[in-house]
């Protein structure tokens, strides 16, 4: 959000490459960070504080020294683990033996969906995305509940028709109106359809998660509005 210049080495001329307006600066996304006093010893801002301070002061020699101190401590810790046979088990990263690279366990590489994704946040080192729609797990669980109820309803209706038919003479069975009926199509059912057909309410887990989602939704209304303003 500051000025950027291009220096031409051949003739020594300097040209303005980027100079953001006040409007551009106002629209930049707000950076959320953990307060320094709340960070643990190995979190980046606290761990590299002396290196950062030296860089900001323009003291490259001091920055290099502080960086060496950190790296030497890491080497000593690794040496001690080897000598004691202690296995190193990272909490947030996994090692790919094929490429000899470390990868973040909870990486989410899918494109950002502005219509569904509300915000991405970190909790206990795990990146999570808050979405507007029901999660896949919630949707699948809800669909399973409804499908189970549809199956029970169809089975009950079939048994009812079978009993009704057995009570009528064979030559009148086609003209007899049964007190039981099944819907012509049960492939697309809304919650209201389920109530109309006499389905029981969703299970306790569904109800609990629905209430939880409502609380989340009300808590992020202001965030949604701010995001919409940014998109505009």
Description:
By secondary structure, this protein is of the alpha+beta class. The protein is built from eight helices and six strands. Strand 1 and strand 2 form a beta hairpin. About 14% of the residues have low confidence. This is OSBL5 protein. GO terms for molecular function: lipid binding. InterPro entries: OSBP_sf (IPR037239), Oxysterol-bd (IPR000648).
Secondary-structure topology with pairs:
Blueprint lengths: L3 E4 L6 E5 L3 H6 L16 H4 L1 H8 L3 H25 L8 E4 L4 E4 L12 E7 L2 E6 L4 H32 L23 H6 L7 H16 L1 H11 L1
Antiparallel strand pairs: 1-2, 3-4, 5-6
Helix pairs in contact: 3-4
Features:
single chain; 232 residues; alpha+beta; two-stranded antiparallel sheet; 6 strands; 13% strand; extended
Report the portion of residues in β strands.
Answer: 5-15%
Structure summary, number of beta strands: 6
Element pattern in H and E: EEHHHHEEEEHHHH
C-alpha Rg, in Å?
31 Å
Placed side by side, the strands forming the largest sheet appear as 1-2
Biggest sheet, in brief? 2 strands, antiparallel
Distance between the termini: 20 Å
Average pLDDT over all residues: 76
Look at the helices and sheets and give the structural class: alpha+beta
Low-confidence stretches: 169-200
Which word captures the global form? extended
User: Treating each run of at least 4 consecutive H or I residues as one helix, how many helices?
Assistant: 8
Helix content: 40-55%
Pfam families: Oxysterol_BP (PF01237)
Biased composition (Polar residues): 167-188
Organism: Sylvia borin (Garden warbler)
Protein name: OSBL5 protein
């Amino acid at each position: 959000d500051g000025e950027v210049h291009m220096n031409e080495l051949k003739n020594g001329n300097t040209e303005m490459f980027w100079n953001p307006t006040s409007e551009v600066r106002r629209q930049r996304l707000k950076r959320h960070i953990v307060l320094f006093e709340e960070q643990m010893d190995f979190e980046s801002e606290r761990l590299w504080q002396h290196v950062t301070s030296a860089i900001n002061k323009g003291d490259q020699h001091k920055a290099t020294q502080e960086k060496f101190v950190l790296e030497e401590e890491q080497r000593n810790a690794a040496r001690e683990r080897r000598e004691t046979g202690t296995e190193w088990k990272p909490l947030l990263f996994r090692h790919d033996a094929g490429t000899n690279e470390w990868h973040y366990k909870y990486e989410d590489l899918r494109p950002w969906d502005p219509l569904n994704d509300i915000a991405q946040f970190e909790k206990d080192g795990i990146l999570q995305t808050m979405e507007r729609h029901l999660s896949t797990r919630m949707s699948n669980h809800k669909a399973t509940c409804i499908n189970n109820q549809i199956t029970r309803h169809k089975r009950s209706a079939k048994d009812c028709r079978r009993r009704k038919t057995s009570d009528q003479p064979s030559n009148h069975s086609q003209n007899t109106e049964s007190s039981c009926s099944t819907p012509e199509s049960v492939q697309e059912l809304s919650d209201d359809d389920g109530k109309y057909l006499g389905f029981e309410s969703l299970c306790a887990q569904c109800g609990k998660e629905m209430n939880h989602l409502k609380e989340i939704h009300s808590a992020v209304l202001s965030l949604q509005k701010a995001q919409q303003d940014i998109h505009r």
